[in-house]
Amino acid sequence: MIFVESSFAVDTNENRNISNLTLLQELDDVIKTEESLGNDQEKLHELRKAREQYQKTLKNIELMRNKIALLRDKIELQNNNHKDPQSIYTIQAGSFVNIEGAQKQFNSLMQILNEENNNYLRIEKIGKVYSVRVGSFNDHTTAKSFLMATKSQLNMAIILKAFIKADRIVQPQKNFILSAH
Questions:
Q1: Class level of CATH domain 1-181
Q2: SS in 3 state form for the chain?
Q3: pLDDT at 20
Q4: Domain ranges of the chain
Q5: What percent of the chain has pLDDT over 90?
Q6: pTM of the full structure
Q7: For a Cys staple, 20 with which of 5, 114, 130, 167, CB 3.0–4.6 Å?
Q8: What span, in angstroms and rounded, lies between the C-alpha atoms of 98 and 128?
């Protein structure tokens, strides 16, 4: 499994962020230990159920962060009275409360995605959230095809309809060309 999951704050101190992947791996280790010791099946069932619930919670957190990012886009457009910029479909690989988590995922994706697939790889700061996104697609079908082709590298990613705005881009991939939008 690769690091494409988001991070969340354990408390308000951003220095105490723990990756979701680390927590899932620790839970997997506990389950494996319990299995190897031949411990109570009921306890193992509870641990597996807890892991499954945690993974669902992570997905829900990611979906909520994505919805918040989209709402911020809409609010910003309304507040600034701008013409609607060209919307695109993009793949959001993760959202983070700090730049370090986003940078870690960005670097990981730079290593695992081939040059053709990391087109428009970027970190965007939307409000207080850092989102790692890749791609700029004209339609949902093309975005879905890309996601399916890269699903093993982008296992927690989702498709969003969004805007690419230069002032939100914290770190673009080197071949990133904004002039197309």
A1: alpha beta
A2: CCCCCCEECCCCCHHHCEEHHHHHHHHHHHHHHHHHCCCCHHHHHHHHHHHHHHHHHHHHHHHHHHHHHHHHHHHHHHHHCCCCCCEEEEEEEEEECCHHHHHHHHHHHHHHCCCCCCCCCEEEEECCEEEEEEEEECCHHHHHHHHHHCCCCCCCCEEEEEECCHHHEEEECCCCCHHHC
A3: 65
A4: 1-181
A5: 14
A6: 0.57
A7: 5
A8: 8
